[in-house]
From TrEMBL:
Signal peptide (from-to): 1-24
Start and end residues of each TonB-dependent receptor-like beta-barrel domain: 271-672
Protein's recorded name: Ligand-gated channel protein
Protein's membrane topology: Multi-pass membrane protein
Keyword field: Cell outer membrane, Ion transport, Iron, Iron transport, Membrane, Receptor, Signal, TonB box, Transmembrane, Transmembrane beta strand, Transport
Main localization, broad class: membrane
Length: 702
């Protein structure tokens, strides 16, 4: 790209006209959530030592302050993750405004926001095809400087998908100054964890820097027979090829294994329709069950800063995921007196997913109408393949021993009853353009459009996976500064998302369609150290897949029409000297066109609170607490059974003492009141959350 003046150019004019008319773009065929456009956002890790960030590019592609961003954004910083030992994505999202973590079984998790599943995950702004709709195992957070969560349909980052949220994992990057840290943790149920992080220059000129991050996590569990092990290793190299050009390359490997892992979970009611009440450690897994998840992620990134202020970036990524597991699914309805009435469904499952992604983009400024505006545009391509196979075991439908006193003793069968599986390929090409127009000093317009063409071919458990679709998705957002510290905003986008879920007969559901809008106020205080926001949102989505039941182990769905609306309040940062806080409160309504409530397994009110305080009388001491509350949820089951989870609050405490500038010791206690509750009602089975537990961490920093 050749340098050009800041005056309006034909390219900038064309982009401005396109962006200005984006809201009138015609609709067309679309792609599913796993085929959302892959967008590049340049985000450097920012460790402020507090609970907020001064800027984020996770919503509008442009590096804006949270107050300038026309959508709800929550940031979970490295400091908050360290303070409360948020070592997994589930830990982070469980402490994020408006997000619910649906742990349906021991090794698989769904995430929801604003009444819909979260299916948009990104790494440094580059979208990752979401193959399974849920996360296998736990994604370790030792690799990330912070995690941004943009709630609502993120029209500029993801052209299609659920209007829930986009989760952007922002990697730790190399630093020119030498820094290092080691943390050792010991906790309940023989939990052990070691983390190491070292970064610095690799040559005298400091033009070559590197960072190495590693973690090892293992232990038993409150769940009977269940234990886990997780190994994480990441290396990133950054080379300054010139003052304007930087080449970055990195690779991450995470391998997680578990024993005694559940497939499905506990039955929740007896044949007399009364609720099941088991020990908190109850586990339906057999003692021979195993699970292994392996994530490998590589990327190469080239950036160039032009003299006129424009910046170009190209990123090539390659990701692989492997799963190998032996499982026992237990189904049926037990008798209250005898505990009998359950049946076995053993299986061995193998899955291999490979993804290759390329993204190129440019960002800069241009003049129009005597004012300076910002523009970003780019294109991307991806290919994703999935090959998985289920080897069903002998003895499907055999009666299980009594649920009462179940100890996992069930003979391991041979897995040769029959096989089934998937083999398909997804490809997509997309392009995007977006601008932030400086209409007046207080008023800014953020608007753009992304267009995607996606093609799929193959078989998914006997059902054709063929798709060929294209879609243009517009987005518009407006901000207005009411005062130097307070901004009003609004945003709007449409939704179109073909689905892969099937009904009872195996037929693929029709696409979901809809629209979403958001209005709110944002404020920024103390030079950006404190951010607060309040939002009103409304989404209409038709034909959203909702699970009705299972045919054998295959889930089947029906489409529901739903309108989601609600209020979100979010606050993060430094409230007073030494007092950090992250807090959020959400009120949600979910109804069908007839006004009947839907998705009753999702809480309608949630509160998330984390706070720490550096004690003035003893500056080396920091104390803190978390409180997560949600109101009651329920499911209506066949035959008149109603499964209920009463409202509950979970409180955690922490304390850290800085022995000196390099060494500190911290203690964390989770679920202080030892509350017993179910992890989720997303499915018709569930299990209990962890009871009271504690850990101690010794941390050294250079």
């Amino acid at each position: 790209m050749s340098p050009h003046r800041t005056a309006l150019t034909p390219l900038a004019l064309a982009a401005a006209l396109l962006c200005g008319g984006a809201y009138a773009a015609p609709d067309g065929p679309a792609v599913d959530a796993a085929e959302a456009p892959i967008q590049t956002v340049v985000v450097k890790g920012e460790n402020t030592g507090g609970y907020t960030a001064r800027s984020s590019a996770s919503s509008a592609r442009l590096d804006l302050s949270l107050r300038e961003t026309p959508q709800s954004v929550s940031v979970v910083t490295r400091q908050q993750m360290d303070d409360f030992r948020l070592n997994s994505a589930s830990d982070v999202l469980a402490n994020t405004t408006g997000v619910t973590v649906e742990k349906v079984e021991s090794d698989r998790t769904y995430y929801t926001a604003r009444g819909f599943d979260i299916t948009n995950f990104q790494y440094d702004g580059v979208g990752i095809p979401f193959v399974f709709g849920n996360v296998y195992g736990e994604l370790d957070t030792v690799l990330y400087e912070r995690i941004d969560v943009v709630r609502g349909a993120n029209g500029l980052m993801s052209g299609t998908g659920n209007p829930s949220a986009t989760v952007n994992f922002i990697r730790k990057r190399p630093t020119a100054m030498t820094q290092a840290s080691v943390a050792v943790t010991a906790g309940s149920w023989d939990k052990r964890r070691v983390e190491a992080d070292v970064s610095g220059a690799l040559n005298e000129a400091r033009t070559l820097t590197g960072r190495l991050v590693a973690a090892y996590d293992e232990g038993d569990s409150y769940l009977d027979r269940y234990s886990t092990k997780r190994k994480v290793l990441s290396g990133v190299l950054e080379a300054k090829l010139s003052n304007a050009t930087t080449l970055t390359a990195g690779h991450t490997a995470q391998i997680g294994t578990s024993k005694g892992n559940m497939w499905g979970a506990l039955p929740l009611y007896y044949t007399d329709l009364s609720p099941v009440d088991l020990d908190v450690g109850a586990n339906t897994a057999a003692d021979w069950t195993r699970n292994r998840n392996e994530h490998q992620r590589s990327f190469v990134e080239l950036t160039h800063q032009f003299e006129n202020g424009w910046r170009a970036q190209a990123t090539l990524s390659h990701n692989t995921f492997k799963n190998r597991s032996k499982m026992l699914y237990v189904y049926g309805t037990p008798d209250r007196q005898t505990g009998l009435g359950l049946f076995a469904y053993p299986s061995r499952y193998d899955a291999d997913n490979k993804q290759t992604l390329f993204d190129a983009s440019a960002t800069g400024q241009f003049n129009l109408g005597g004012r300076q505006h910002e523009l970003t545009f780019g294109a991307n391509w991806s290919k994703s393949t999935l090959d998985d196979i289920s080897h069903y075991g002998q003895g499907i439908g055999n009666p299980m021993p009594s649920l009462n006193g179940w100890d996992g003793s069930y003979a391991e069968p041979t897995f040769d009853a029959r096989i089934d599986g998937s083999s398909y390929e997804d490809k997509r090409k997309s392009a995007f353009i977006a601008a932030r127009f400086n209409l007046t000093d207080p008023m800014k317009l953020v608007t753009g459009i992304s267009t995607t063409k996606a093609d799929s071919d193959g078989i998914q458990y006997g059902v054709a996976h063929y798709k060929s679709a294209s879609k243009s998705t517009p987005y518009v957002g407006l901000t207005y500064d009411l005062t130097p510290n307070v901004t009003a905003y609004g945003s709007y986008t449409t939704i179109f998302n073909p689905q892969s879920e099937t009904d009872f007969d195996g037929a693929t559901l029709d696409p979901m369609e809809g629209r979403t809008a958001e209005l709110g106020l944002k404020s920024e205080w103390f030079g950006g150290k404190l951010n607060a926001s309040g939002a009103l949102f409304k989404t209409r989505q038709d034909n959203t897949a909702e699970q009705l039941g299972n045919v054998g182990t295959r889930a089947y769905y029906h489409g529901i029409d739903a309108e989601s609306k609600g209020i979100e309040l979010d606050l993060s940062g430094e409230l007073a000297r030494g007092l950090q806080a992250s807090a959020g409160f959400t009120v949600l309504s979910l109804e069908d066109p007839a006004g009947q409530v839907v998705k009753t397994y999702l809480p309608r009110r949630t509160l998330r609170l984390s706070t720490t305080y550096k004690v003035p009388a003893l500056p080396a001491l920091t104390v803190g607490a978390t409180a997560n509350w949600q109101d009651d949820t329920y499911r209506n089951e066949a035959g008149g059974a109603v499964i209920r989870q009463a409202s509950y609050a979970v409180v955690g405490l922490m304390a850290r003492y800085d022995i000196n500038r390099q060494l500190s010791i911290a203690a964390n206690v989770n679920n202080v009141a030892d509350k017993k509750y179910l992890t989720s009602l997303y499915w018709s089975q569930a299990y209990y959350a962890a009871p009271r537990n504690a850990s101690v961490t010794l941390n050294w920093k250079y």
